[in-house]
Input
Amino acid sequence: MNLMQSLFLNVSNGMTKDVVRLMAAVSVGYGAFNLILSLMSPMVIPLIGMLGFRGNRQTGLEVLAFAKNGPDVHAPLAWLILSWYHMMGNTDYLFDGPQSRENETYVKESEQLVCNPPEEFQNSTSLQYFTGRSLYLKGDLERSIRAYEIGSTVVVDNSFVSMKTMCLHELGFMYAIRLDWMAAYKKFASVAEVWMRQYHYFMATVCAGAAGDSTTAELMRQRADEAVNGCRLNACPGTMCSFMESKETKVAEALRWTAAASSGDDADCNHRDGQRHCRLIAYEVLYVKYGVAKWPVDALQAVLSDCKEAEDDDNTMFYTKQLLTIVCRKVLGFVDDHCHSLIEIVENMDRNQRRDHLYVYGVYELTAEQIRHIETIDEGKRTVQKLKDLKRGYHFQYFYDMRCVSLQAYVQKLNVR
Output
């Protein structure tokens, strides 16, 4: 038991139930306030500080841990906030940077939360969702899928948002990581009926195309286009819509190749090339959203196989394949000069004046790799400054910002030591 929890327990001894209930309520608010402020972007924190607010993450977590054992509705609410943080908001735990391997307590804390839910959340979709997240982050893809499947079929959904929908959303990506493309397509198509239509129809298109079902993929592509056009009319394009627009020509071309080759209309078309291009687009989204550190070995090897240059490859996905190759080989334990390879990628994109999301992810991976090694750690600390300067509307900006916040905080800790 930590100091903050001990203090609260000592103070609450001998008090009436009403006073203890009030303390728990205040603890939830105070803990959530500190936690949320601590997760703010570094660009916003100075402004918040000028207003007189400070966020201490550890204090927030300790107070919420106390409230989790309190009476009434405060305990399940504190449990829900803690579960969200450990399974969704803790950037140190979610991605592939050096900080994610430094503290095994992240794994233990997430396990304790899902193994000891409050009564209100037992057998709930929320519990199954967080269980699925925890298992994936432990690297247990199969059990994660089973938890999400259970969550997607639970009758009672007592959460603030539809966690059934969230379970289906995660299932689409989990099946894609498992390379079960048709199962992934079905989940994405199901989610698209109720949430983020353009995003999920696009992923359904890519997954059906990866499976070689050009007819289904074309139908999903048409629905995705309709959803994107609707977003344009409503002036809510977002970075995902812009990414989809950048891939529109390549996806349509890949589906034409697949359809022509499978029907025998064009002997020069290779059925596998169309599928491979769809898989590469899917890998790109999966890497951005999850990183690759928790993927099974056969999935990583499949990515490497698809990233090999083919004779008819154009330059559209050249950097995608290069970046995916490096990160997958790192996880598989290949003894390469990953730092040199990443420097080459970043310098080539600099020369070609390429400033898209692949460039910023290349800089991020280079920084993380430099910080991993004693001989390049000082150079990595300098490269962190470049991350701070790359702030604009890239595709998948949210996931990039999450990685940067975590890596910058890790470097600050190194400077203190």
The chain is about 70% helix and 0% strand. The mean pLDDT is 81. The two ends are 26 Å apart (CA to CA). Residues 75 and 147 are 23 Å apart (CA to CA).
